[in-house]
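Hello support,

Our group uses your service weekly, and this is the first time we've seen a run hang past the timeout. The protein is DMSO/TMAO reductase YedYZ, heme-binding membrane subunit. I'm not sure whether the cause is the sequence or the server load. Input pasted verbatim:
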Amino acid sequence: MKTKPVISGWKLFWLVAAIVLALTASILAIHPDPVQAMHVVIRVTAYTSLAPFLAAFLASPMATLAPNDFTRRLLRERRYVGLSFAFSMLVHLAAIFSYGVLNAQFWPSRDFLTNTPGTIGYLFIALLAATPFRIFSRHLSAAAWKRLHTTGVWVIAIIFGLSFLKRIPTVSELYVIPLLIVCVAIAIRLTGKRAQAKRRTGAQIRKSSDAHFNKTVESAA
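Update from on-call engineer: The timeout came from a worker crash unrelated to the input. Re-ran successfully.
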């Protein structure tokens, strides 16, 4: 019995991109007030960005902690999931700038400190989105690539968490829900990385033991 083909690769990316654009267009069409509509787009695209980010963030640890067809497929598609996240954040950024144009009070109400986390986050998003392409990745060593991705995903995860945290007392207590989701994701990633480290240590010990055993046998012979 043949299984249905799973959407993967660039098809997966374009599917997510189409969903984000369709949601954005729908919101703009439904709301009569363009300022309010753009504000809603900012909120919605924050969540359409969070979902693929967490999928990419958890792909490796979940493949370790719960190896199955789904987690292995998610790990294989991590590149395109990450690019989908970057696209959604690009739409989010466009909505922010559009809101700033429509609402003259928006940018004057912000200062350097309030803009810094988002600026840092978008810098890492741009760097991470560039690395899957050979024209950029060829300039990075494997170690530099790994350091960039490790640092980048952690910075973005923390920025997501802080952005939800600061909105709990000022906007809505419901922001505690996405904050808890981010915290759980961080806990899962830490647990998965610890399990991966233990596996690597165990493999090194077994390799060392086998080498010592073989050397002992050769000496005895």
